[in-house]
Write a structure and sequence with these properties.
Blueprint lengths: L1 H17 L3 H36 L18 H9 L2 E3 L1 H5 L11 E4 L2 E4 L4 H4 L14 H6 L23 H4 L4 H32 L4 E6 L5 H4 L7 H5 L10
The protein binds 2-acetamido-2-deoxy-beta-D-glucopyranose.
2-acetamido-2-deoxy-beta-D-glucopyranose (NAG) binds next to helix 8.
């Protein structure tokens, strides 16, 4: 016990006794240390400045130039929405965010929920392949695939694209009662398909790491009833087929 303590003390004392030039060395070490400290200062300044600039340039969505996406809670928009409640926009206000004005963020809506798609200006902005989706709720177009024609939120009748076409020759196979029952089932299945087709895109935006939700569309009461009913667009209509007679 006493022995080991002595050894420890000796070890502690050793540097001072065996290094006569320690003062000089220390001065050199200090120089080196401050040199490295300076480099470190410069480097950390560059990193912080780059992050700050990235944050400003990417509109508060990334500290790393979009390389590493921030978790949602680290984005300002996330907190903005939580602190001040969600933002509501009329369709006219949303239209101002179709990308034509590059000073404004580019928004789109799907089934009433608005997303910021500014990072994909080349796609959703003017001239982009999905330009019809920018600045509006084009829910119908996502499902029918008729981008230009169906860039509206009206989903009424979209399920028809999943319904078989009536054909007297083929349909003669079933009795009237059978046909009535079958048509009911076909319609229910078609409505579910249309819902799921839209849901696919609703979920796509909701789960996207790239786009974040900024709010909701504020539409006037009875907006849907005021829109004229539209026909199923030709390409979607073309995709329909006749009933198949079951092989027995
Ligand atoms: C679309 O919005 C309506 C009304 O808010 C909602 O009832 C429906 O479930 C939504 N559809 C999808 C596919 O999310």
């Amino acid at each position: 016990m006493a022995d080991s303590e002595l050894r420890q003390r000796k070890a502690k004392a050793e540097p001072e006794t065996t290094k006569p030039s320690s003062k000089h060395d220390d001065a050199q070490d200090d120089d080196k240390a401050s040199f490295y400290l300076d480099i470190l200062r410069v480097l950390s300044f560059i990193v912080v400045a780059s992050c700050g600039l990235s944050y400003v340039v990417t509109g508060g969505s990334s500290w790393t130039w979009g390389g590493v996406r921030l978790p949602e809670y680290a984005r300002t928009v996330y907190w903005k929405e939580r602190l001040s409640g969600p933002m509501y926009m009329t369709p006219e206000e949303l239209a101002q965010h179709n990308g034509a004005d590059t000073e404004k963020p580019l928004y789109l809506a799907i089934n009433g929920t608005i997303y910021d798609v500014s990072v994909s200006r080349h796609i959703y902005g003017p001239g982009g392949s999905y330009q019809y989706f920018g600045g509006r709720d084009a829910a119908r177009a996502y499902v029918t695939g008729c981008f230009a024609e169906d860039a509206v939120p009206d989903m009424r009748g979209v399920e028809e694209m999943y319904l078989p076409i009536d054909d007297p020759e083929v349909d003669a196979y079933w009795t009237t009662a059978q046909m009535e029952e079958m048509k009911k089932q076909e319609r229910a299945a078609a409505e579910e398909k249309a819902f799921n087709a839209l849901k696919h895109w609703v979920d796509f935006f909701a789960k996207s790491k790239k786009y974040h939700r900024v709010g909701y569309l504020k539409r006037e009461e009875g907006w849907l009833d005021k829109m004229p009913r539209r026909q199923l667009c030709a390409p979607a209509q073309k995709g329909r087929s006749k009933r198949k007679i079951p092989k027995v």
